[in-house]
Amino acid sequence: MTSKRATVLAIDIGAESGRTMAVHFDGSALQLEEVHRFPNYALTVNGVLQWDILHLWREVQAGIERSRALTAGPPASLAVDTWGVDFGLLDRDGNLIGNPVCYRDSRTEGMLDAVLKRVPKAEVFAQTGIQFMAINTLYQMMSLVERGSPQLETAARFLTVPDLLNFWLSGAQVCEFSNATTTQMLNPFTRSWAGELLDTLAIPLDLFPEVVQPGTRLGTFDDIPVIAPACHDTGSAVAGVPAQTENFAYISSGTWSLVGLEEAHPFVNGAALAVNATNEGGVYGTFRLLKNVMGLWLLQQCRSTWEQQGRSYTYPELVSLAEAAKPLRSFVDPNDDRFLPPGDHPAHIQAFCQQSGQPLPQSDADIARCVFESLALAYRDVLQELQTLTGRPLEVIHVVGGGSRNRLLNQLTADATGIPVLAGPSEATVIGNALVQLISLGELANLEEGRQLVAGMGEMERFEPKGQEAWHSVKMPAIQ
């Protein structure tokens, strides 16, 4: 019989910041307590944009140490999730060969084409089921192959960023399934590495370790069990969705917006390839059929540019400005390549509007409004594509993550899609991470029981569609 009382540590690291949260379970409810918060950043060293992974390792240890003062005894377990696609290489002694390179680094330029010269696009998709994006690990690895990197000659093991932190915590050199799928190097049907693809591209197959499922116990750190959650932060966020129906969509809203459906099997066919859909691994045998949309990164970069120009805004102030701006004037495609690197995004937005023959957003308020409405439009188009693929009706859209607090964007999403939006919880990633730990510990029977707990936390706000007739004629603009 289980205790039905446990505290677990969820360590969640995103592209801008990380935090350690204690999640307390008393047998009937979850309570979250922040233990430690820290920045994350990429640094350019010798012309390469890379992560300060040793800084993250120090902060992970600091959070674990601080948690001991908040709990009676050590936590029942701990688990780490991070962003996807980036990785480190280890030598045969287990030493890291250089910092993990940031997915926004320029080394992947031209690498998608380099891969497709060797393997047809349809074959890459058939072997991986993953959306074609230049940031994917496959193209990062191809850049090492193309330039004959000495790292490949030295390397003995490949680990994604959360797997690297798990190795330092537990000693286990494995890759967790949900994060491994983001690499575009894993076969979703065999749930093992796509050996034929890797061999064709001269990417050494022997670099890649065993793939383990979410909920696997990896080892211990200071006598605390280390459990693999869905190590991809979106995988954990979707696990934390308080779904009460099978016919739901989700938007994990943050720097990126991950828009999708939870499915029992991957959709790997010509129709999925045609819309560039992706089949990322989920928890407990599920797949996340989704598309990546460049999310609130656009607003973050606009805010940074305005601050450099002497105009500082809080995010709530930007929402208020956008609410007062004229609606439905100008749109951008959030996934246009110009928006991927850091830069002057207000100027990029204006240039896109000019090149697509739309009114030029002039004021900061107009630009902020353009960002929010463009995201809502992109969400609508993605969900329509996924509904066509699956034939599934949608009753509700769950918006989770930090972006769920943006009431304007939530309402615009309901209006654009014509589907009610349930916003919250904002801490879905931490909650999903904790639910997998609690299931692994035997404190919860299954994910359904966990989602019932999340639904009872009372954080959700409902947004009903209104004014959607104005969106019927709106289409994603294209560059002329």
TrEMBL record:
Gene Ontology terms: biological process: glycerol metabolic process; rhamnose catabolic process
Record domain Carbohydrate kinase FGGY N-terminal: where: 8-220
CDD domains: ASKHA_NBD_FGGY_RhaB-like
Keywords of this entry: ATP-binding, Disulfide bond, Kinase, Nucleotide-binding, Rhamnose metabolism, Transferase
Record-annotated Carbohydrate kinase FGGY C-terminal domain positions: 249-440
Cellular component terms (Gene Ontology): cytosol
Protein name in UniProt: Rhamnulokinase
GO function term, MF aspect, one: rhamnulokinase activity
Coiled coil: none
Record-linked Pfam families: FGGY_C, FGGY_N
Top-level division of the source organism's lineage: Bacteria
Family stated for the protein in its record: Belongs to the FGGY kinase family.
